[in-house]
Amino acid sequence: MNIPAVGLGTWQGLGVKNKHKDIRDSIIHALRTGYRLLDTAQSYGVEPAVGEAVRESGVPRSEITVATKFPSEWHHDPVQALQISLDALGLDYIDIFLMHWPVAADGDEWSVLPITASPTFVETWKLMEKCVGPRCKAIGVSNFTQKLLDELLAAATIVPVVNQVELHAFNPNLKLVSYCHEKGIRVTSWSTLGGGGEHTPKAKEILTHPLFKRIAANHDCSTGVVALSWAVQRGICVIPKSSSLSRIEENIHLVTLTQAEMKEMNEAHTTISQIRLADHISTLAGERDGEQTIMGWTKKEFGWEDADGNWLT
Which residues carry out catalysis (predicted)? Predict the structure, then answer.
């Protein structure tokens, strides 16, 4: 499947009320600027605005890749979840339908189930395979590690077309990206720009640290463009969000970094800081038996870290 390298993320709509027109108009602007990939999710609450923008942009539907994600409470019935998204988007089909997290929930998104409880993510994937057809061109996953993908691929008939993960200079996922590419899975990066420091101030340095500012000066561009270009040169799709029309225009015009600059970017997690934003998102955080959890699972269960706390991705 041909997936554009740069898309527009839409999670800026999460929790925002009465912003339908603004979000729709920014998406229309992106499409008319040249974007051909839109990333959204049921939990963002903006699928109606995304679908309306697609219909009103003047860009043929066949040229636009629309990716959306279903939440944890629909792991038991992704076929019905697909219909919910189709109805909200007002589109005849979705290009890429993703399992938002490997974590299932019972009743609502926060009633999370243990990793061994049914439906497991493997059971959900087998149900997702039934979605592929005229209404759903391809399926994929989000927030999966090598550990989880090993288990899924052992039972899968269809290989995920995409694995969407947190990825930025302070969490480059060097091993995970290599693994996915070997398996024929395209990696999509969320929070490539560090999330604007929303969850931890240290992440702001992805846009302000002297290393990244120097590279930006070398190419007469912003540090944001440097971060996006670095990811795309690694074969990764990026989906930066923005409500600024000028920033939307800027983010699609990438530069080519030198091998030395790529090396510096790849090593920034060891020379500057190592950060997993998910560890700092309060709505995801919890604790079990004195151990930190994300969405109810430990970092070891996710496959992010080993028993000694060493990062595995």
Answer: 44 (proton donor)
* Rounded Cα–Cα distance for residues 207 and 5 (Å): 21
For the question of residue 44 being annotated catalytic, the response is yes
Phi and psi angles of residue 179, each rounded to the nearest 5 degrees, phi first: -60, -50
**CB atoms inside a 10 Å sphere around CB 111:** 12
- Angle (nearest 5°) at CA 183 between 180 and 184: 90
**Amino acid code (one letter) for 60:** P
Strands 94-99 and 136-142 turn out to be: parallel
d(CA 81, CA 97): 10
Measured from the Cβ of residue 299, the count of other Cβ atoms closer than 10 Å reads: 20
DSSP string, 8-25: EE-GGGTT--S-HHHHHH
Instruction: Note whether 276 and 304 are within 8 A (CB).
Output: yes
250 with 225: CB under 8 angstroms? yes
Residue 178 tokens read as 């290599």
Name the residue type at position 280.
Answer: H
Instruction: Answer for the pair 203, 274: CB distance below 8 angstroms, yes or no.
Output: no
Inform me whether the pLDDT recorded for 15 exceeds 70: no
Identify whether 114 is preceded by a cis peptide bond (ω within 30 of 0): no
pLDDT value at residue 285? 87
296 vs 288: CA distance, rounded Å: 8
Pairing outcome for strands 37-39 and 65-70:
parallel
Residues making up the annotated binding site for substrate are 100
DSSP 8-state symbol, 114: P
pTM above 0.85, yes or no: yes
Q: What is the pLDDT of residues 99-121, one digit of tens each?
A: 999 999 987 666 889 999 999 99
User: 170 and 267 in contact (C-beta within 8 Å)?
Assistant: no
As annotated, the binding site includes 100
Q: Tens digit of pLDDT for each residue in 69-100?
A: 999 999 999 999 999 999 999 999 999 999 99
